[in-house]
Every structure is written in C-alpha cells, then in structure tokens.
Amino acid sequence: xxxxxxxxxxxxxxxxxxxxxxxxxxxxxxxxxxxxxxxxxxxxxxxxxxxxxxxxxxxxxxxxxxxxxxxxxxxxxxxxxxxxxxxxxxxxxxxxxxxxxxxxxxxxxxxxxxxxxxxxxxxxxxxxxxxxxxxxxxxxxxxxxxxxxxxxxxxxxxxxxxxxxxxxxxxxxxxxxxxxxxxxxxxxxxxxxxxxxxxxxxxxxxxxxxxxxxxxxxxxxxxxxxxxxxxxxxxxxxxxxxxxxxxxxxxxxxxxxxxxxxxxxxxxxxxxxxxxxxxxxxxxxxxxxxxxxxxxxxxxxxxxxxxxxxxxxxxxxxxxxxxxxxxxxxxxxxxxxxxxxxxxxxxxxxxxxxxxxxxxxxxxxxxxxxxxxxxxx
Length: 377
Hints:
The chain is of the alpha+beta class. It has 2 domains: 5-224, Rossmann fold (3-Layer(aba) Sandwich); 237-371, CATH 2.40.50.100. It is built from 9 helices and 22 strands. Helix 3 (108-121) packs across helix 4 (137-149). The longest helix has 18 residues, at 167-184.
C-alpha cells in the first residue's frame, strides 16, 4: 500500500550545523505518528519540510506518490497547529476559524456551517462571537485545531501544541486529539519532547536524536523493547547497567548471574541491560540476613518456582509520588531505581529480583577495538 507521505533521503543544514542527514520516513493514511526527541534533534525541521515551510538541501518529499518538494505550503493538503497557536487577537473566534475558508473564496453559508461544525468537534459550540483573550489556554488550543481542521486537510501537523498547558489540560487535550483523529480520519504528524504524550496518543513513535532515527515502532515496542541506551533512557525511567552476556539466556549483572530470554549476542560479550523500575521485585530481608546460594529460588505463590538472579541491598531514598513509592536501592555497586506500591523506608534491607522476561539486553555501540575483543569472566 502506497504511503500517504514519504520522506526520501532528506538532508538539511542551517549554516554549518547538520540538522538532518539522509533521513527517510513513511507515513500511512489515518496514522497518528509522533516525532519524539530532545531539543535540536531535527523533529521540528521535519515537520516544516512536510508542511513546505522549509526546503531540504537534499532528498524529496512525496504526497500520495507525487513529488511535492518544491510545492508551496498553501498548495498542500496539509495544515499546521503551532505551539503558540498564532490566533488573530483582533478577530473573534468565528472569524479566526473562518480565515482560511474566506481566503479560499467559500460562500458565507458554507463558512457558517463549517465553523459551527468545527466548534462542535472541539466541544466549543456557541463560542463564535467570543474574543480570543476571553479563552483559557486549553480553549485557545482547541480553536487553533478547529481553524486547521475546518479546511479538511488530509494531514494535520502539530508542533508541540500542548507545551504551554498545565498537566490536567494537557491530559484532556491528549484524549481530544485521539478522538478527533478517529472521528475525522485525518493523518496526524505530531512533534513533542514529552514521552507521555507520545506513548498516550501515537500509533507509531519515531525516536530521534542528532538528526537520525534511533528507533521506530508502536508505543509498546518503544517502551518494552528499546533498541539502544538512548531510547531506553529517553522513554520513561530506566536502570541501564553495564553487563556481560555469558551465553544465550544468561547475563551477568553486578557480578550476579541472571537468566534472561535474549539470544544471539554471543558469549562473554559486554552489553547494556535495561530494567524498568516497575519490573524490580522487592522483598524485605532481616537486618542480620546472610544471603545463601539457595536464595536464587523465588516462589511467586502459584506453586511454581523460578530460578532468578538476586541482589541484596539497602533502600537509600524513598519518595511517595501519588500512585507508588519511588525508591533508590544500593545493591551490587549500582544505584537502582525501583517503583513499588509497598513502602520500604530508607535503611530497609531488601532483596531485589527481576524475572527473565523483564531483562532487556542491548548491544553496546561498537568500536573496532571492541569488535575484536572477547571478554573472559
């Protein structure tokens, strides 16, 4: 199936700074795709190139199979919602929404009907005569979206549109955008540096850094199966630990052998391991507890015993953040971040376990020296 939008080998520099280098991406029709990454990674530049506000130094942009690289913004079936909304303060809400339609020469009755329809979609029916400065930030954001969708674009570009909103409004608007996407069948390309926004709304997340795609996939794939340490660290909280892959399904973490489910990394190789804080199993142990080899057997209470690696340590920091307790645990020479609904006060001696399925193994970035070296343990 032909993609709705195709970016082919896009490169872009500003002065002497390379922002994008041989960047390629395909966007399907009716897809909600998020470009996620830190400031300066090139995500907004991609959005501006798709919208026609920037031209690539190299590469081409295709829309429904047609090369639109040189096409001006007003000729593209694409609309943009900017972070600062760009609403006209001297116009009321109805006039703001109608602006693009008037330029297109639509009839007054057509414009009135479309404005009314757009306001209903963003749950602001009856607001036509109100002034812009009478609206809250969330309402202004909805008007900016109404002004964009009233033109019936096939693609809606959103450049960090929720950045100026408080947490509650931001969460409300996330669900509003999902609803609009499903009702209207518009393709969304969304730019943000907020991981929660990306994971909540997207069909596909494109994690970027330094002008390159680090990983692309569903929110579940990005979160549960990060391909490198940058993605693991950028998407949610993570424990990223230097480790040694002993052999298939066996990894040594903090000098303790853990079973895992990953294969194909070779024998005795340096790897990175990612363990999410919520995947750490915590068990209180007595102050005078003396760990034994048999402690690597942990009973989950279902009658089945699973051999696990186990580390022993001490809770050094604990804070309650509403849903759970977030703790730091010193164990095996590493400071572990753990999340648990049970409170383990600072100073508590604990054992920490991780089931094999929750240990994510990643290759380290390879140098020529590292590729030639085997590690003995």
